[in-house]
Amino acid sequence: MTAAFTPSSPYQPLLRQTHNQRILSLDFPHLPADRVARSRWGTSWLSRGRPDHPPVVFADRVRNAMRLVALDGLAEKSGFQLGQGVAEARAMCPEVDVLPADRAADRALLEGLADWCSRYTPLVALDGESGLYLDITGCAHLLGGEKSLLDDLLARLFHLGIEARAAISSSAGLSWAVARFGSQSVIAPEEAVRVLAPLPMAALRLPVDMIETLGRVGLKQVGDIIEAPRAPLARRFGSILLLRLDQAMGLEDEPLSPRLPVASLSAERRLSEPVQGEDDILGLTQELAARLKPELEKRGEGGRLFELLLFRVDGRVFRIAAGTSSPLIEPSRIAGLFRERLQAVHEDLDAGFGFEILRLSVPKSEKYEVMQEDFSGTPDRQQPLAAFADRVMARLGAESLFLPVLSQSHVPERAAAFQPLADVEMLKTVEEAASTVPACLRMASVRPQRLFQSPEPVEAVAEVPEGPPRSFRWRRSLHRIARAEGPERIAAEWWVDGEKAAERDYFRVEDEKGRRFWLFREGHYGGPAQPRWFMHGVFA
């Protein structure tokens, strides 16, 4: 029996004062079956009607037995049950179509649907294996209200071959419950109690064993516990029951984590006619960048990362990101970045029947300092270099350009490293670091033009105990030394190599053919271990 609720219910004033947010819950009851149906019969199979085909079920190994883990609509109507054995299912219907479950493919389809739903709001969160949450707060008016938005979403999904159920309310819990167990699609905040009361206990997202226990004591509907004393319920069933109830009523916050970071700034263009050509896409991208420029200037920021979303008419969404080496606001340069990116992803970008929505976002921005241009029209001598770096990285990838960076080490192979050019300001850092090296040190410490990442062993004949090599064999070739300079002794870094690591004596040598090498001896003659010789670099 469902309790009657009056405007004087203690929940009503709280509900009127709570959230202004509006959450849309999407449930895909037959997601695996829809995935297979789309591949077999096309994306418009729902609108054309299901072909004459046996029920489709999906099986996976559960507790060392093959059991049904997903069904299509016809299988549900035919009496198949989740958890049922495959042998029993075949006995019920010999012609049943049993397919292996593919959770990775189902997950990919769900994530693709999440990308597609970002056409309505950027705040899209995954809900388990077959659902989505959309935070549409402040977005519904763009499509004529919540009912119009919901109708548009469900109609588009229907024509894409995806069966879906949805509901909108002020809490994620209530939307989830109504989408799966209710009949009303849009619930106003003051209607929460009335709509939730007649729903079964499963609508509160409770564990199965708790739902069975509640049913045994006669608590089968949510309305049976809404106004019941809370302390006995908590003692008998634990805090999870009241938490789920309060979340559904909107009395307890339930934060949603968007699947992807939400950009701080974006501009969108919805087209009456889809576009396919690269020039059309780039022209619209520059137009969107021009719409973003005033807001970036108002904030005093420039974009460091731009993301272009292309919504294809068949539901697929392409995300193309382009980073910059310095803050950027110029629309022409932003469009130029995506020209390079489109060239790089040309093989993977299939326009199909065209793109109907384009969205340009700025996920990352930094402070932008406006500089006075000189007579050449260039405000900064590093601007051409930054433009070059941006084009190269957009075409070849973020780690296509590297800079040598000094490290706090005197061991040659550790003294410098290459880091990706992520910021044009790194150029200034490298120049400043190079200028601070004392001139005497730069002259005394001559290094080869090519330094091997790992020293290569050689066979050397040398004067003992401290003399340079007379000859050495490297890569099966014998070299006789004509001139030698050294040694330059470099001690090991005991905190890295250990206290027993040997010292190195480096020699700059030139063979009889004029080739110059950089060799070192590790250890000393007459020591506890025989010294070894290594080739570490070549000068020319």
UniProtKB/TrEMBL annotation:
<keyword id="KW-0227">DNA damage</keyword>
<dbReference type="GO" id="GO:0006281">
    <property type="term" value="P:DNA repair"/>
</dbReference>
<dbReference type="InterPro" id="IPR001126">
    <property type="entry name" value="UmuC"/>
</dbReference>
<protein>
    <submittedName>
        <fullName>DNA polymerase Y family protein</fullName>
    </submittedName>
</protein>
<dbReference type="InterPro" id="IPR050356">
    <property type="entry name" value="SulA_CellDiv_inhibitor"/>
</dbReference>
<dbReference type="InterPro" id="IPR043502">
    <property type="entry name" value="DNA/RNA_pol_sf"/>
</dbReference>
<dbReference type="Pfam" id="PF00817">
    <property type="entry name" value="IMS"/>
</dbReference>
<feature type="domain" description="UmuC">
    <location>
        <begin position="54"/>
        <end position="177"/>
    </location>
</feature>
